[in-house]
Amino acid sequence: MPEQTITIGHKDFAVACQPGEEKFLLAAAEMLDAEARTLLNQIGRVPAEKMLLMSGLMLADKTASVEDKLKEAEAQIESMREEISRLHARPAQKVEVPVVPQDLTDGLSELAARAEAVAEEMESRGSA
Predict the structure, then answer these.
(1) How far apart are alpha carbons 127 and 106 in whole angstroms?
(2) How confident is the model at residue 128 (pLDDT cuts 50, 70, 90)?
(3) How many of the other CB atoms lie within 10 Å of CB of 39?
(4) pTM of the predicted protein model
(5) Which end of the chain, N or C, is more open, meaning fewer C-beta atoms within 10 Å of its C-beta?
């Protein structure tokens, strides 16, 4: 079983871990050390046992907060999944486009042609 030396709050500790788990141990030790250094900066010198206890509690508090946020995010994701499923299950909505009667289209075309003819006549009178 590999043994690692970790530093928590300027104190070295020898800790054994499973083979291949060294990087996880070191990452956890860094997190605990960060809390310990914060504690030492605020309070000053503290006995090792109290430093480790307080640092562990501070880290546990942060972990609990992250777990609460994770649960909230998972609930939102589940709600969104349900909404997506509900929307997919809805029958497709038909959109009806009104049809313009042919006689109205013909009338508008004739009116447009007359307007163009009048415009051309006015243009030819203006340039003469």
Answers:
(1) 32
(2) low
(3) 20
(4) 0.56
(5) C
